[in-house]
Specification:
alpha/beta; six-stranded mixed beta sheet; single chain; about 210 residues
Length: about 210
């Protein structure tokens, strides 16, 4: 069994013929899955033929409350993507550390949402606007990584990250386990958040259980 992300990886791998078609007669608990999750997953896997949702998360803002307070004061828009995409805020937060995901599929839609553009837009003019926005904040971003921010938030090495909800919860838990007084919080941005679904699937070259 493998655990690919529904989009874009699983969609591409299905086209390449990487997975077995599920025998749903042998999966009676499929009826217990949330139909909304199945509908989202079906965008990558038509008819949910090759995989089942395993877990989901949203991409949003994780931050250290004390560090954010020291950097921006009470006026900080704690539920807005402006914290990382507004150059004025980003410049101030650069001192305590900003991390962004090293994943264009997450960062570009977030930038589009902040600009008030459909995050699914593929219009070149829209993508150019997102790229220009990212270029403006680039000098203030300490690191682009898709997992290191978990430890960095927990250890107080950065004050804010654009990341996955589950990862930020891990950061919060690691800080608590280490006896740190740091309060790590995840917020869903008011501009909207992208949902990610990880799937369970069976590769074609897997050994047959029988």
């Amino acid at each position: 069994v493998v655990v690919p992300s529904a989009s874009p990886f699983m969609a591409r791998q299905i086209v390449a013929g990487a997975y077995l078609v599920l025998d749903k007669a042998k999966l009676p608990n499929l009826k217990n899955l949330d139909p909304r999750m199945l509908a989202i997953a079906a965008a990558a896997d038509p008819g949910n033929a090759h995989g089942v949702p395993y877990l989901w998360s949203v991409t949003g803002i994780g931050y250290n409350t004390a560090m954010l307070q020291r950097a921006l004061g009470k006026a900080a828009p704690r539920d807005s993507l402006a914290l990382v995409f507004d150059p004025a805020f980003a410049k101030k937060l650069a001192r305590c550390g900003i991390e962004l995901l090293d994943t264009p599929q997450e960062v570009i839609p977030a930038a589009l949402s902040y600009l008030g553009i459909n995050p699914r837009s593929r219009d070149l003019a829209d993508l150019d606007r997102a790229a220009a926005l990212l270029e403006k904040i680039r000098p203030y971003v300490r690191k682009y990584h898709s997992s290191q921010y978990i430890n960095d938030l927990a250890a107080g090495d950065v004050c804010i990250a654009l990341g996955y909800s589950g990862d930020v919860i891990q950061a919060r838990n690691r800080a608590r386990e280490a006896g740190s007084p740091a309060e790590i919080v995840f917020r869903v941005p008011r501009e909207g958040a992208q949902m990610s679904i990880d799937m369970l699937a069976i590769p074609k070259d897997a050994p047959h259980p029988g």
